[in-house]
What we know:
The structure holds 2 protein chains of 2 kinds. Chain A is mainly alpha-helical.
Amino acid sequence: xxxRAMATSLWVVAFVIAAIFIGFILMIGxxxxxxxxxxxSEWLITQPFVVxxxxxxxxxxxxLWVIGTIxxxxxxxxxxxxxxRIVRQVIRWDAIDVSVTALSAAVYGGALAxxxxxxxxxxxxxxxxxxxxxxxxxxxxxxxxxxxxxxxNFIADALAGYLxxxxxxxxxxxxxxxxxxxxxxxxxxFRTPRxxxxxxVWGVLVGSVWCSLYISWWLDFMEPVIGLxxxxxWGFFAPWVIFNxxxxxxxxxxxxxxxxxxxxxxxxxxxxxxxxxxx
Amino acid sequence: MLDQYLALxxxxxxxxxxxxxxxxxxxxxxxxxxxxxxxxLLTMVIYYAFDYAGxxxxxxxxxxxxxVIGVLLIVIGLGAVLYxxxxxxxxxxxxx
Lengths: 279, 96
């Protein structure tokens, strides 16, 4: 097979994988609409949660919570995992990095609040279009962008009336949504089949599930303070967060990433041009 | 038990003080911790202001206000950062 034919087939594979992801998420959305927002126990997306049960979910999510929390503090204190080793990373945290964090926080938090309560899709008041930005800020700006995403979500919680101790879980949970594709995608350009496939696996699937389980574990653990029933956390909140994050991310983020990558790279703001690693 | 909003406010103050201490000592991370502490406390101010104004009581009261603040946040945040980047030459690629 010639290289041109090979490239074409890789693109076909990438688009088929993207179409499967989007189709599956749309199917979940239609399933929720068909069964009704008031019947989460019947939703397709809730079934794995029903099968596993609260105790198994709490154990699995607990492991992800510990790993996520260690990664959060490790990354902010200048350490990272590279090639299965813990290495020192040099983030300058100069005026440009801090302005990247501020920009990510303002745009993400502002966009979440600006579209809050508006039924973008009939019947889906809580679909958050701004979710599309979270993985992008990580992919394009790295740790400064991921931290901005955390802060933005925290501000949006206050504007939506959800601020509380549970928001600490949301703080790190949103960091994870941005961090997972930043760290695990090898090609961030959105210009190759590999980049597209990696985005759907890490940015849409893994990032959304990890974020949801991270926040849900925290809400369950802090139940005496927060007061949310465990059945609500694992039977509605967790599957809903996965759907809500992956829905917009799967459809909008690759388009935005394709548009934004070149100007950000050209201006020296892309994370790989700013962060140095020491072995 | 300690009120959760007071606890969150105390965390914000600790982050801000730590950030300012690092900034004064010209240590790395001072800027970002100060920004984090300041935005954390801004969030608490928003919470207490909304709570005091009774905006959390009904969604119909909360949402027009929250939507407008969201738009302002984007415009001011994006505007301020782009203005700084334009002055610092980042938009011409000096950030490289």
